[in-house]
Amino acid sequence: MSTFPNGMNIVDLHCDTILSCFMGKKNFRELEGHINLDKLKAGGCLAQCFALFIPSNELAVRQFGHEVDTWDLYNQLLAIYKDAVADASDVLRPALSCSDIVENSKNGYMSSILTIEDAVELEGKMERLEQVYKDGVRMIALTWNFENSVGFPNSRDPEKHLKLGLKPFGIEVVQRMNELGMIVDVSHLSEAGFYDIVKYTKKPFVASHSCCRALRDHSRNLTDDQLKALADKGGVVGINFCDDFLNDRGEHYSTIEDVVRHILHIRDKAGVDSIAIGSDFDGIGSKLEFKDYSGLPLILNALEPYFTADELEKICHDNFLRVFADQA
Ligand SMILES: [Zn+2]
């Protein structure tokens, strides 16, 4: 695929910006975090994945002091996403497929892709999966950091991390997502769940916002074997900019060099075709050397000595577009 017009270059596989809209009652223009419309434009956005983060009851009790109706919350967040996208329609348009992204870019629009972080709201009901597809969701991170009806999350306890994977309903969800053309996202899933995906998915899958475990030993990161297994299935890893996944310096600071190091590691272990960007913007508290979305070109400049122009295009957008197109 060739270069897109007007400097549109980057597909970012994960951000929590919708949560910022929800908490701050702001639209995409007004936001003051890592992402807003001006910052997307300045950073060279081709398409942004916007996740609806649905808190599980374990988290809701901790955060809000009471349980939540996860399906009701999903619908509230969906309404906020739709309002924010409608309000930005002079520069941003929704994309339900790879060809929508291409079409939008031809007309000068950036694209938004709707995703879910934590399938907790499915609550074991397959009809809800059908509904979220109809609502325009095209990628689902199956768990966050708590067990749900689909399966078990990453854990610092190796017993759990390596043994507790997908539940029978989770296997059905993966198979139905394959049929519908929704991307399975394994970020936050246990290692056992990851290998269940390898076993059951017929389509390429992604780790939308994870890093390399060989460089930073964290249960949210992928081992070299996982990187290879994901690449063998034609999938991609979106590199997360959270300092805790990139380094163990404990400074709450992510450098450009950290990001480059993880990207080069994926290239060496799994190949350039499995590298993507999964910022986790507006979901991470780390201080960033490149500040926010508008600083992404600084990372691309730092990658230039290591990659050809074609390879950089793969990292920026072509790898993800291939995975998205392969869902059809
Ligand atoms: Zn996350």
How would you sum up this structure in a few lines?
This protein is an alpha/beta fold.
Overview of the structural elements:
It contains 14 helices and eleven strands. The model has no long low-confidence stretch (mean pLDDT 96). It has 328 residues and is of the alpha/beta class. The relative contact order is 0.14. The strands form three sheets. Strands 1, 2, 3, 4, 5 and 6 form a six-stranded parallel β-sheet that branches. It has a three-stranded parallel β-sheet with strand order 7-8-10. A two-stranded parallel ribbon has the order 9-11. The structure holds zinc ion.
Features:
binds zinc ion; TIM Barrel; 11 strands; alpha/beta; 43% helix; 14 helices
β-sheet strand percentage: 5-15%
What is the gyration radius calculated from CA atoms? 18 Å
What is the CATH architecture term? Alpha-Beta Barrel
Ligand types: zinc ion
What is the mean pLDDT? Answer: 96
In N-to-C order, the SSE pattern is: EHHEHHEHEHEHHEHEHEHEHEEHH
Structural class: alpha/beta
Could you say which overall geometry the principal axes of the C-alpha atoms support?
A: globular
| CATH homologous superfamily title | Metal-dependent hydrolases
Helix coverage percent: 40-55%
How many domains comprise the coordinates?
1
Distance between the termini: 18 Å
Instruction: Tally the beta strands.
Output: 11
CATH topology-level name: TIM Barrel
Q: Largest beta sheet, briefly?
A: 6 strands, parallel
CATH class: Alpha Beta
